[in-house]
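Below sits the subject:

***
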Amino acid sequence: MKLIPIFFALILLTAIAAPAQKVRVDHDSSINFSSFKTFGWSDGQVSRNATVAQIITSGIERELVAKGLTRNDSNPDIKIAVMAAVGMDLQGVGPSWNNAEYKSWGGYGNAAALMNVSTGTLLIDLLETKNKMSVWRGVAKQTLHSPAIGVPSDSEIRKVEKQINSALKKMFRQYPAGPTS
């Protein structure tokens, strides 16, 4: 019967070793989100890891389609920009589309401000294409973890996919509104 205490100790250690995702979302409350009917992708790399990039891309598209939007690469109402810090911290110059009103990210009033994205963080911005300003931002910390060195196993890929999809569901639950017909 010594197995029971060992079993609970293992569960506790697993819970300590796997910190919970922290998801925060901000949006521009002056924007009529029901006017957005289409989305496309901003230029740039989603993630340095091709498998992670594909999981993120598919997941975001699935969430936006569920909100009633359709993909339009030639003339979208909103564009998707992603920073995925897998296995390393990222830094970038604050983009011109940054929204100073965002509290969860700290709000950069200066478009030239240096942005720090810590490892494990997934940042998604939805950019309104007319004014090139972010209207929605989701930040999920403790979400992206590097798989083992070498080619990841199917179980590792499924684990990463589950973490990413969980974060995306939490984020897009807070998408203000879908388009109305």
